[in-house]
Amino acid sequence: MTALNPDHAVLVRAADAEVLHGTTTVHLLADGSDTGGVISAARSRMPRDTAGASPHHHRNAAEMFFVIEGGLDVLVGDRVVTARAGDFLLVPPGMAHAFRTPADTGADFLFLMPEVDRFDYFRLLNRVQQGLASPQEILDSQERFDNHFHESPVWTEHCAGR
Questions:
Q1: Which distant-in-sequence residues (6+ apart) come within 8 Å of 32 by Cβ?
Q2: Which of 31, 41, 43 shows the shortest CA–CA distance to 1?
Q3: pLDDT band (50, 70, 90) for residue 6
Q4: pLDDT score for 1
Q5: Per-residue pLDDT averaged across 85-101, rounded?
Q6: pTM of the full predicted structure?
Q7: Which of 43-47, 69-73, 132-136, 158-162 has the lowest mean pLDDT?
Q8: What is the assigned CATH class of domain 14-160?
Q9: What residue ranges do the domains of the chain occupy?
Q10: Contact partners, residue 41, CB within 8 Å, separation at least 6
C-alpha cells in the first residue's frame, strides 16, 4: 500500500464508486490501497431477512459497522445484538462475528476496516453469488483476506428461529 499523502484528501463521489449487485448491493468506496492503508470503506444495502456474513473472525483487523437505516442482527462473540439506525459497532480482532438483517427490516450500513484491502474479497463474494465462482474459493482465501470461518451454535440457533 502506498502512504497517505498528507496534502491530498481522499474523496470518492457516489457516481464514481464501484457497485456490486447481488443478494446485497455493495458500494466500494475506498480500499486500503486508496487510503494509504488507513481504512477500507464500503456501503452495503441488504433487504429484510437476508443472510450476510457467516460466523468468522479476523486475526489482524477490527471491523466496524455503522447502521444508516434499518437494522442488523450481529453475532459478537457468543451473543447476538441488534444494531439499529444510528448505531455504531466495533468488533475487535479475534472476535467471532456474523450478521444478517432481521425479518422486519432491511439495512443500509457502512463497513469500515483499518489497514486492509477488502475490495477483492467483496468482488469474490459477488462472483460466488452470481455463480461465476465456487464457494470453495472463499474458503481457500481465508489467509489472504484474514477472514477465518468457524461454527457458532449461538448464531445457528438465532438463524433457525427465523
A1: 1, 38, 39, 40, 113, 115, 116, 117, 118
A2: 31
A3: confident
A4: 58
A5: 98
A6: 0.92
A7: 158-162
A8: mainly beta
A9: 14-160
A10: 29, 30, 35, 110, 111, 112
